[in-house]
Amino acid sequence: MFTNKLKTYLTPQERVIDKNWLLNKGKAKQLQQSNFWDDLFMSEVGPIWQRLFLLKYQTKPFSLIKSFIPIALLDKQKNTSIDDNNVNLELAIDLANKANYIKKNILLTWPTSEESKALLLKQKTQVFVEKNYILHDKQVVRYEEEIVLPDRVEYED
Fold it and tell me: By Cβ atoms counted within 10 A, which residue in 20, 75, 124, 130 is the most buried?
């Protein structure tokens, strides 16, 4: 696990850097309050919005990004809708809550059936899951998972 400064992080909407990249936004869904979310966010957060983004490179799926935002934080955002395509909601939440760090976990695991379908996986293969905890002073503001095939990732020091 390592920590990076937030300034190097790109929200899902910021990852479309040229005409070769395309971002498809799925329908947001509400997840009920659970001990899992309370533990992950280190406080009672109530229900969560899950937003899905499929990042494509030259029409081929590159990664599936799942963004999890406590509904209570969205309620603080004036004139913002969960399905508004003109607003970078993740960035607005990060800025409004003064997020200043990201904690990352990267693991190799098997994809869920939903992830396999979105990434058009034809055979059983493992995927990287990059878990991003967006923080303000050690308090988790937002959580994100990016699922990507290992052969599409290149890491540098």
Answer: 130
